[in-house]
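Researcher: Re-running this chain for the archive, since the previous output was lost when a drive failed. Same request as before.
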Amino acid sequence: MKRKFFIASYILIAVIGIGLMAADHIDAPNVSGTSSDITDYYAFQSPENSNNMVFAISMQGLLSPMATSTASFDESVLTEINIDNDGDNVEDLVIQLIPRDGKMYAFGPYVPSSVGTSSTIDESMMNVSTNITSYGSTASIGDNSGFKLFAGPRDDPFFFDLGAYSAILGGTASGFSDPGADTFAGTNVLSIVLELPKSELGNADSINTWVETKKS
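Model: Regenerated structure tokens:
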């Protein structure tokens, strides 16, 4: 794969301890409603294996059940997880994910040949692949040498009470109620979930990590 990909969207978080998350459900019009549009990014220690990290990316949010049945990953879009191990906000390692002919492929982690807004894929670094799960089907999970990969539609996992948030900003409410209203209930996202050994990510006690989508 020699095509060059250029940045379309990104989300940044820092991981200290067992994990953090970030969300952004509405992006610019040129990426909104496509698999370039990142809604959520989660990075956390596997609850089943403390030696593993899990990276979960949701995109193309606010999908109705009807829209979910026809939603798909764009083959011109590269999803790239960036890992900064020394705090300089420059990626030391990348994990690259791209769909091809009904499958999702994961490359890396590996040291990229270039950093910043453009990327190329070193196809020799492919570690795991999986069939993309279709809407309503049993999850297909690729498993290879400690790497596990899922790609497909899922119920939106992000809980947010937009009505209460707007009321607080407007001065008509002083805080959120418990549990509040889940604004995204009944909507779906396309998700990519990758689990891998922490040893693949370097030796830093904490990492900065961000996810980008890049288009060819």
